[in-house]
Amino acid sequence: MGVTLFTQLALLGKLGVVVAIVLHSLALVPQWQAQYFNPRFLHLSLYGLVLAVAHGAVLALAAAALPSAPAGRVNAAGWCIGAAVLLNLVVGAQNLLAVVALTRLHRPSALIAHSLRGAVRPLLWASALLALAATCIARGWF
Q1: pTM of the prediction?
Q2: 87: pLDDT strictly greater than 80
Q3: What percent helix, strand, coil does the chain show, rounded to 5?
Q4: How many other C-beta atoms are found inside a 10 Å radius of the C-beta of residue 83?
Q5: What is the C-alpha to C-alpha distance for residues 78 and 91, in angstroms, rounded to an integer?
Q6: How many CB atoms lie within 10 A of CB 59?
Q7: How far apart are CA 30 and CA 40, in angstroms?
Q8: Do 140 and 73 form a contact (C-beta atoms < 8 A)?
Q9: Which are the contacts of 126, defined by CB distance < 8 A and separation ≥ 6?
Q10: What are the backbone angles phi and psi of residue 36, rounded to the nearest 5°?
């Protein structure tokens, strides 16, 4: 039961990692086209890309280490990495909206991006901590 749940979450996680990489990469395109790079958006895109790659590595590690583990550990690692990828997707979407609002002067994007602005840094930290927790669970450290 637990391994199948992790397998399903891992498939969604892999898709989420790819989407997060695409979102953070797309946030760089309008800045490049406008030949103006906002340092805040640039750093957020790079942090998001690094986290997405780290999430993919944790998924690969967990997939290799967990098939022989108890079901509870498998489920916990699956949910941790799933939540981490979801938080990274929210950050990627917010960053893309903010960049579109800046480069295209798109008011609806600006309103949505501004409403999520205060949550970006805590979401990035929570995503990193959940990925770390998933790694520790996958390695059997707790």
Answers
A1: 0.81
A2: yes
A3: 90, 0, 10
A4: 18
A5: 20
A6: 27
A7: 14
A8: yes
A9: 84, 87
A10: -140, 120
The CA distance from 122 to 142, in Å, is: 24
Give the integer Cα–Cα distance in Å for 5 and 19: 21
Tokens found for residue 65: 């280490």
pLDDT band at 44 (very low <50, low <70, confident <90, very high): confident
Please report the DSSP string for 75-130 in residue order.
Answer: HHHHHHHHHHHHHHHHHHHHHHHHHHHHHH--HHHHHHHHHHGGGHHHHHHHHHHH
Q: Rounded CA gap, 51 and 44, in Å?
A: 10
CA dist 116 and 42 (Å) reads: 17
pLDDT in tens, 55-84: 888 877 777 776 677 777 877 888 888 888
